[in-house]
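Lab notebook page, bench 4
Experiment: in silico fold of construct C2
Operator: M.H.
Input chain length: 87 residues
Purpose: comparison with the prior construct
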Amino acid sequence: MMAVIAGAVVTNIYCTQPILPLISTSLHVDLSTVNLVAAAALLGFATGLALLLPLGDRYDRRTLVLAQIALAFVFALAAAFAPGIGA
């Protein structure tokens, strides 16, 4: 199950690369801006692996996962209310 989840997360991050021009066209945004958003997603994933993964050895994993879910919810709300990608 963990391998399937890990594969889905990584696939979700990397599958946007070939369709970035289509995303740029549909959002009416410059391609370099869309590339920066995709790069930020990759950097965020790498940072999460480097910084958050070792915390599972030090702290209670259940509490850590619940805190990460809460933070993901807050950031998803912030993204939902953001004015736009080019603003």
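Observations: The chain has a mean pLDDT of 87. The chain has one domain: 2-80.
Next step: discuss at group meeting.
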